[in-house]
């Protein structure tokens, strides 16, 4: 029987994120209903609100979530009612050209629920990243659930952040850049994703980890979590400073966690010859960059983009949860603030002021 629940919806471009009642249909084949426990407030949700991702309004926001499976549809065997899960937006299809080549992390046709959740008047909702977890319940494809039953409830808020931003940052280092022990890594922009990249560099065994930002508060947090050097780029030229900390050569890997032409240019010139640049910050679609082709050729190396940290959730989530349980990955440090479902718009404002790494919405079972 369809369920009516409270959820955070944006009806039009730049409209406020507000509580609405929505209808959750019974799960169909391959689908599950999840009772949401926590959901992180991510910049991507605000991009949906501002119409920078698409114009398929109204949007049901939220995607960095933990939950508990409450209903399963026909043919679902990967999860069971009662399982605690992290939600993901890469439920691989197994059939697209990337999957057929064994590159599941690049799946071009990831599964989402086939049915749509709706407003009470029947208006179909577009769920952010196919999840829509700023809600008491949500409908997703079974493959969007990674089981984490051995995690205590107190850890829900922290591990849920693996569903997007933290995975994107850590994965940009471990997966996309494939940082090796002893290499140097610079991270430009140390918000939630960039700070996660700093943590990823420490996990990978990088010996020089340089954090760059314009906010001293963020730099201090990055240093607590593993940065060996910090640079405020409002006071110091970041390219010169990164070279200074790497024997004049530049870093082996530079992560651009901002996604603007000026930060990408800094990343490009702050790397060593044959170094790697990884873009993980999501750029505004209107932005462009111009680089001299002789520099692109002459500096060698690799220019990469990192999609979701090039992760495979079924593989990477359990590995990172295990590191968290061992005390080797401090996910709790990313949870700066906890709030409720009706305060999402206020959480966007807090995020924009740079006051938090992550605000997490908590719901009760």
At a glance:
The protein has 365 residues and is an alpha/beta fold.
Shape: globular
Q: What percent of residues are in strands?
A: 25-35%
CATH homologous superfamily title of the largest domain: Medium-chain alcohol dehydrogenases, catalytic domain
The number of strands is 18
Indicate the mean pLDDT.
96
In DSSP terms, counting alpha (H) and pi (I) runs of 4 or more, how many helices? 11
Q: Main sheet?
A: 7 strands, mixed
**CATH topology of the largest domain, which one?**
Quinone Oxidoreductase, Chain A, domain 1
Q: What series of H and E elements makes up the topology? A: EEEHEEEHEEEEHHEHEHEHEHEHEHEHE
The CATH class label of the largest domain is Alpha Beta
Structural classification:
alpha/beta
What is the terminal separation in angstroms?
19 Å
Give the domain tally. Answer: 2
Pfam families: ADH_N, ADH_zinc_N
Family: Belongs to the zinc-containing alcohol dehydrogenase family.
Enzyme class: oxidoreductase
Protein name: S-(Hydroxymethyl)mycothiol dehydrogenase
Using brief descriptors, characterize the structure shown.
365 residues, alpha/beta, Quinone Oxidoreductase, Chain A, domain 1, Rossmann fold, 2 domains, seven-stranded mixed beta sheet, six-stranded parallel beta sheet, 11 helices, globular, ADH-like_N, ADH_Zn_CS
């Amino acid at each position: 029987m369809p369920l009516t629940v409270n959820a955070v919806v944006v009806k039009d471009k730049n409209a406020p994120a507000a509580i609405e009642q929505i209808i959750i249909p019974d799960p169909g084949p391959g689908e599950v209903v999840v009772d949401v426990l926590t959901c992180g407030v991510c910049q991507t949700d605000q991009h949906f609100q501002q119409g920078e991702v698409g114009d398929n309004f109204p949007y049901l926001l939220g995607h960095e979530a933990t939950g508990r499976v409450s209903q399963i549809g026909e043919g679902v065997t990967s999860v069971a009612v009662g399982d605690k899960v992290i939600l993901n937006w890469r439920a691989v299809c197994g059939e697209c050209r990337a999957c057929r080549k064994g590159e599941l992390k690049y799946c071009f046709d990831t599964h989402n629920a086939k049915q749509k959740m709706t407003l009470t008047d029947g208006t179909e909702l577009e769920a952010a990243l196919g999840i829509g977890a700023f809600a008491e319940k949500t409908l997703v494809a079974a493959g969007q659930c990674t089981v984490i039953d051995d995690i205590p409830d107190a850890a829900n808020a922290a591990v849920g952040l693996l569903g997007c931003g933290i995975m994107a940052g850590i994965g940009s280092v471990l997966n996309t850049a494939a940082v090796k022990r002893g290499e140097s890594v610079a991270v430009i922009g140390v918000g939630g994703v960039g700070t996660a990249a700093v943590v990823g560099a420490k996990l990978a065994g990088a010996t020089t980890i340089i954090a760059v930002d314009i906010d001293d508060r963020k730099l201090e947090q990055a240093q607590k979590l593993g940065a060996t050097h910090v640079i405020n780029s409002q006071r110091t030229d970041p390219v010169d400073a990164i070279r200074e900390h790497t024997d004049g050569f530049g870093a082996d890997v530079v992560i651009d966690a901002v996604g603007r032409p000026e930060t990408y240019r800094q990343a490009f010139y702050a790397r060593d010859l044959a170094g790697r640049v990884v873009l993980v910050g999501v750029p505004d679609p209107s932005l462009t960059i111009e680089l001299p082709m002789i520099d692109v050729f002459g500096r060698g190396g690799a220019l990469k983009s990192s999609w979701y940290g090039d992760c495979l959730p079924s593989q990477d989530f359990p590995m990172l949860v295990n590191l968290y349980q061992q005390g080797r990955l401090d996910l709790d440090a990313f949870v700066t603030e906890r709030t409720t479902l009706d305060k999402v718009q206020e959480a966007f404002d807090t995020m924009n002021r740079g006051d938090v790494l992550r605000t997490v919405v908590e719901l009760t079972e």
